[in-house]
Amino acid sequence: MLSSMCLASGPGFRLDAVTCVADHRGWSAPEVSDRYHVVLVRRGVFRRMTRGRAAVSDPTMAYVGVPGEEERFAHPAGGDVCTSLSLTPGLWRTLTAAMPLHDGTGRHTRSATPTAKATALTAPAFYVDARLDLAHRRLLRAARDGDIAFALPETMTLLLRAALTPPGSRDAARTSNTGRIVDTAREAFAADIQETATLTSLAAHLGVSPYQLSRAFTRELGVSLTHYRNRVRVGRALDRLEEGAPSLAELAADLGFADQAHLTRTIRHHVGHTPTALRHLLTTPTP
């Protein structure tokens, strides 16, 4: 069962919160859109098939869909909550003009025409680092504030820039073996199973060596396994801060950090802000 709630809309765009409570392992019927759409996951995990390739989507991996592209979905782990930003081709060209869009091979297409740049989006998924996660949350905040003339388009443009020029995107170069290792590990992190507590226990759970696991993350996502694990924990910290968590010491303990200082250092490294500053960014109403 799929439900969608419009958070904001304007000329050429629509921002929706999409909730899926489906629990099916098989692929859905094909879906085709006449718009571009950027989909970022708030909670849960699912799989998307497009152009003959499957990718796992969760809060650390999002995707861009293009007009006329056929998509199929599977939800072997249950439901999920996503943010879907859809744009008409005309608004897409306007907002992405002059952006150095990633072509999925590590090259950029700054000098290409809008049409060529659109077709250069070959990677079905891209890594969501903590800064892009924050841009996602600020977009939702702008939607709540209701300024569709300036604040919302501005945060939308910032999000698109972060999404379309992901620093660690290596998806087009993935191999089937390393891709499966990374996808399975990411699903384990998303489920927060006990085996994700250490490198050796996670490698044993996946049936690979620690070296294979570590190398797979660097090769597939362009970031280390440790960086990815901290990225997941920072995302959970942002959730708690957004909900108004009162104690940073308790938050650090709940998320497995050594202490509050360790939590603060890690969040500052990933997002560029302290937890105190993030509380203001995510919870204080705009004047």
UniProtKB/TrEMBL annotation:
Question: Which Pfam families does the protein's record reference?
Answer: HTH_18
Against SUPFAM superfamilies, the record matches this protein to: Homeodomain-like
PROSITE patterns in the cross-refs = HTH_ARAC_FAMILY_1, HTH_ARAC_FAMILY_2
Q: Which residues form the signal peptide?
A: none
UniProt entry keywords in alphabetical sequence: DNA-binding, Transcription, Transcription regulation
Return the InterPro entries for the record.
AraC_XylS_family_regulators, Homeodomain-like_sf, HTH_AraC, HTH_AraC-typ_CS
Residue ranges annotated for the HTH araC/xylS-type domain, each copy included: 183-281
Decide whether keyword Transcription is in the record: yes
The cross-references to PANTHER family, in alphabetical order and at most eight, read: HTH-TYPE TRANSCRIPTIONAL ACTIVATOR RHAS-RELATED
Stated name of the protein: Helix-turn-helix transcriptional regulator
What organism does the record attribute this protein to?
Nonomuraea salmonea
